[in-house]
Structure formats: structure tokens, C-alpha cells
């Protein structure tokens, strides 16, 4: 047996273990992707061929067919791969992703954290966008530029940040904004769990329902809302902003929906406040005419939560909100490490191809988190950078999978540590506080 032949055989065996070959076949049948015994393209080769193509930054039918041929030992044409794309391939890829998300509950890794020890889970919700070929603008509706509607997809994501486990994804259009997705969390969150989100998801009714479920939330407060003390007396923003001092108080917000929240106002350093004000004044949107009260507002971090003082001080609530930025690190790893945006190039003009590709990539990225990244940070001697880990793994995927899990762990531990930076706190440091 030649060296290359042996290597491919070994890779296929490892990949079968990594993806779960028998499970992939079962899901292919239940989703309708596999109706009878596969003659040329088996479900596992379909998935593995795509991932191998993407690891080489070559999301083309020719490259996909080439890798399937290498794995199966049977010549496969690019037309054969194209013919496998359709509603059934989308259903198959989506079902694979859902299976991996469900399996994530068995890979729990709770980081030690005094900050979040009172909560069963800490869930972050955020979204990221992907620019697509113009031909898909009717399916994935984007923003308008120079009179033309762009094609932009939006991925909504929930992640349990303490366990670094994704809980849910949804794929839609850019026009399906974050506020419209705000209620999705109500099906996923339970009593005793904490939700952290940014202003884009701000909906008073959802805060009210979260409290009703016994769940907790942490968010920034939207400027301009009516505020009342607990006796119903209206509070005026000018009075709250008079003295540049920290405030921590319970109040009611909203003219129609009087939701009880704990409001925390923390003055920002003068340099940072000046930077935010300068940026607001340079806003090119002529519809905006910011008031003096708004500029004063920008001098503060203003948070709302239903977590009591016995659990968090004001400073701890502020520190907890910083964790929200970690989902941006995850999104960055998708785009700079897994090359998610570049792989959806101008040649991807088929809606079913886009959806299949996105779901398969999300599935692979979740498996990476569960089977590569989490085991590494369990045993690593230092703090591991997610982005460095992704970049190393994607560039050397065949080699790292071939050497086995323990050696793979050692390689990542050696080459993917954070640099020591006194002025920047990484996720590992924050959770070990």
C-alpha cells in the first residue's frame, strides 16, 4: 500500500470517528438525503469531502468531487456533487447540526467562576452576517446600497459561555433583525439561567417574560425610555445625570410595560466618554439629531438586570457584561480561522448550496469546539486562544486528526497559547477570577 493511500485510509478512519460515520448515515436516511444504498457518494464522504475542500479554501464542486473520490476510491464528477444539492441536502445538513448541538450536553465543561456561580447556565445571544452573491438578494434580503438590495444572510446564535457550547442556530436574512429574534430565547432558557445580550435585542415584553420564567438577564438600557421609581413617580434623566457618580437602584421602565429592573449607572473614564461622544457627533445619518442629554448619557455605562445586590455588586454586573464580547471572538474565529465568509464566494449562487454549506460548516465548527478545543483547555498548561487554535487546526487538519487526540492536544497546547498582556483580560482569566 502506498504512503498516500495509507494516509488517506487513516484519515478516513479518524474522520469517521470524528463525525460519527454510522450516525451520519442514519441521519441521511431520516432526512431523506439517502433513499437507497449510495453507489458513488456516501453521506459521510459527502460531508468529509466538503470539510476537506474548505480546509484548503477551495469551496468548488471540482475540489469537493476530488476529495470524495480520494476518500471513496471511486471517481466522482463535479456534476454528481451538484446533483446531490437540493432540499434534501439542506434538511440533511440541518439535521446533522441539530444532532451535534444536542450531543453537546454530554461534553459539559464548567469553568470555575465566582462571577457566575449562582446561575445554572450563562447564555449569550448574538448574530453575525454573511455577504452573498447579488443573485440571492430575493432569498437573503440585505440592506440597500446605491439603489440596489444586497444579498446578506444573518446567523443567530445562542452559546452557553461557561461550557463553550452552542445551543441553537437559525439562518435567515439580514432584514430579520436582532429585535425580531428577541423572543427566540424564551424557548431555550429556564429558571435559574442568565441571559446576556446587547441593545439590538432590547424588547420590554421579553424582559418581563424572562422574569416570569424565573430566568435572569443583563442588558444595556435603551436611551429615552420612561423611568419610574417603585412608587410610580416618574424619574427624569437630567436629574439622574446631574452628578457624575455611580447609581444602583431598582425602578420601573416603559410607558406601557412597567418592567421592574435594577439599573446600574457607572461613569466611564473621561477619555473613553469623549471618544464615544466624538463618534456620535460624527454620525453621518442626517436623521439623527442628538440632544445634550444623550451626550451626557454616553458618559456612562448603563445596565439593567434582575439580578439582586446579594448576588452582584454594581462592579460585578459591569464585569459580567464584558463577557458578551466573547461571542464576537467566536464569530471572528469563524471568519478568520474557518474562513466562513470567503468560502461563500461569488460562484455560490444556488440557495440550496448556500444553506447546505452554512449548516455543514456550523456543524463542523461545533464538533471542533466539543472534540478539539474543550479537551485542550481542560488539560492545557496555559490559557489557549480560540482563534489561534482554529487557525492551526484548519491549516493542518489532516495531520492533526491523523496523530490522535492526545498528540493533537499537545501540539495545540504548545503553539496556541495567549500572549501575556497586562492590559487585556482574556476569557480564561475572567472565568478564573
Write up what this structure looks like.
The protein is α+β, with helices and mostly antiparallel strands and 433 residues long. It folds into two domains: 3-101 and 349-415, no CATH class; 115-328, Transposase Inhibitor Protein From Tn5, Chain A, domain 1 (Alpha-Beta Complex). 45% of the residues lie in helices and 17% in strands. The protein has 18 helices and eleven strands. The chain has helices at 3-19, 21-31, 43-55, 61-72, 78-83, 87-103, 204-212, 237-241, 270-281, 292-297, 314-322, 326-337, 340-343, 351-379, 386-395, 397-402, 405-415, 427-431; strands spanning 122-132, 141-145, 148-160, 165-173, 194-196, 216-220, 227-228, 234-235, 247-253, 259-267, 300-305. Strands 1, 2, 3, 4, 5, 6, 7, 8, 9, 10 and 11 form an eleven-stranded mixed β-sheet that branches. Helix 1 packs across helix 2 (21-31) and helix 2 (21-31) packs across helix 6.
Quick description:
The protein folds into two domains: 3-101 and 349-415, no CATH class; 115-328, Transposase Inhibitor Protein From Tn5, Chain A, domain 1 (Alpha-Beta Complex). It has 18 helices and eleven strands.
Using brief descriptors, characterize the structure shown:
433 residues, alpha+beta, Transposase Inhibitor Protein From Tn5, Chain A, domain 1, eleven-stranded mixed sheet, 18 helices, 11 strands, elongated
In terms of topology, how is this protein built?
Layout: H1 3-19, H2 21-31, H3 43-55, H4 61-72, H5 78-83, H6 87-103, E1 122-132, E2 141-145, E3 148-160, E4 165-173, E5 194-196, H7 204-212, E6 216-220, E7 227-228, E8 234-235, H8 237-241, E9 247-253, E10 259-267, H9 270-281, H10 292-297, E11 300-305, H11 314-322, H12 326-337, H13 340-343, H14 351-379, H15 386-395, H16 397-402, H17 405-415, H18 427-431
Parallel strand pairs: 1-5, 5-6
Antiparallel strand pairs: 1-3, 2-3, 3-4, 6-11, 7-8, 7-9, 9-10, 10-11
Helix pairs in contact: 1-2, 2-6, 3-4, 6-14, 12-15, 14-17
